[in-house]
Amino acid sequence: MNVDIHHSWKPFLESEFEKPYFKNLIEFVKTEYKTYKCFPKGANIFNAFNHCHFDAVKVVIIGQDPYHGEGQANGLCFSVNDGISHPPSLINIFKEIEQDLGIPYPKSGNLMPWAKQGVLLLNATLTVRAHEAGSHQKKGWEQFTDAVIKKISTEKNKVIFLLWGGFAKKKKKLIDTSKHVVLETGHPSPLSANRGYWFGNKHFSKTNSQLQQVDVDASVIEWQLQ
After folding, report:
1. Where are the catalytic residues (predicted)?
2. Which amino acids are annotated catalytic?
3. Phi, psi dihedral angles at 26 (to 5 degrees)
4. How many CB atoms within 10 Å of residue 95?
5. Closest CA to 188 of 179, 177, 199
6. Those residues with Cβ within 8 angstroms of residue 18's Cβ, 6 or more apart along the chain or in another chain
7. How far is CA 2 from CA 40, 107, 141, 167, 187, in A?
8. In whole angstroms, what is the distance from residue 124 CA to residue 224 CA?
9. Could you check whether the bond before residue 104 is cis, i.e. omega within 30 degrees of 0?
10. 3-state secondary structure of 109
11. pLDDT at 2
């Protein structure tokens, strides 16, 4: 079965594509997209992998579900298409970057430039039915994305995993913390942020500091967007 995913990932994930759960998942997704309006667009489902190639992965940010509102989801967690209003969690991400790095709040909520620099923006579930949060959970996506996290942990070194909120923190068990860096904080959603669990985490400056500790000549992540 052909999955539209960048060739750099195929040696590590091809075995997953052949497993019964993944074949069932793809059939489920095809049926859902034919029957209901679903997000992101079919061509964008694997955008996280297509815009951040395996060899380039330096940082992993784990989200839960794609946005389920019209025109929002673009296949990268927390990211929205150009011209779309920023959802509350994304607003809080940008506010923290502003406080942490003194970077001005951006117009665009499209995080594609981060992906191009080696930030894997991975939702645990890659698809969703319009206006029905969590509607594609427990259909196989989580098994696949857990396998992705394990592969990165096994095959790479010194990757920085940013785990935001309870759901993401549960993924820590998939990561070899003896060779990777794990930074944890609350979720950027207003519920968590307003209780004091998000702001002040400085994950963006800490990430760049960690990257430079690994390799003084390494390119840090340019978090600034337009």
Report:
1. 65
2. 65
3. -65, -40
4. 15
5. 199
6. 1
7. 19, 36, 17, 30, 35
8. 25
9. no
10. coil
11. 61
Q: Which residues pair with 119 in a beta bridge?
A: 59
Q: Using an 8 Å Cβ cutoff, are 106 and 87 in contact?
A: no
Question: Please, which residues have CB within 8 angstroms of residue 188's CB and are 6 or more apart in sequence?
Answer: 78, 89, 90, 92, 93, 96, 164, 165, 198
HSE-up of 203 (CA within 13 Å, CB side)?
A: 25
Q: Do residues 126 and 46 make contact, with C-beta atoms less than 8 angstroms apart?
A: yes
The predicted structure's pLDDT at residue 1: 45
**Are residues 148 and 127 in contact, defined by beta-carbon separation less than 8 angstroms?**
no
Residue type for position 78? F
Q: What is the pLDDT of residue 226?
A: 83
3 state SS of 181: strand
Residue numbers in the chain where pLDDT is lower than 70: 1-2, 216
Q: What is the pTM of this model?
A: 0.96
What is the chain's alpha carbon radius of gyration, rounded to the nearest angstrom?
17
- Two tokens, residue 1: 């079965």
